[in-house]
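User: Fold this; tokens only.

Assistant: Input:
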Amino acid sequence: MNLTLPPVRTLVAAGALVLVVLAAAAGGWYWYDGQQRRVAAVYAEVMTRVYAAQSPQAPAEARARAQQELEQVLARHPSAGPVAEAAFELGNLRYAARQWAPARGAYEIALARGHSATVRVLARTSIGYTWEAERDWGKAIEAFQAVARDLGPKDFLFDEVQFALARVQELGGRPAEAVATYQRVLKDTPNSLRADEARQHLMRLGAPTKK
């Protein structure tokens, strides 16, 4: 069986094509890496101004400008690495401006895009705060309960979430559930810095406490 070998020029052309493809791929990777670095630098610059704007001494105009800048950079680079952290900070700025629903939208982006467990817990807790701010006790209870189920006594924000849950349970007309939540704080974290605060709430609600 005779095999017809390709002409030398065809082999050279094919080899050149392979080199072009490899070069294009390498160039694409370097372009992507460089692009990611540039985007990260943009985020870092904006976030620096955001943190400065969140200072108690910062004027309202600075917070408004920082919010606008964050909205713009998120719109231009929605797939960048720092999206979750930026979205969380945007939620904080909107929350401070009493924009409850838009703040919740930003926290939901942070939750969906966050790779850090800390960012996700903070976002979920903050979503609960937006419902509480809107006085939607039912949704606030659901939000805080969902977070509380996933947190143990040694986890970050355990006490904070328990107290938030108990507060909205009481505000939502569920004092017995609030009592159970405060009692859980005393049972699971008896040496917590907020244990005395939990006892005070229980006394106010007419429930027994244990030292």
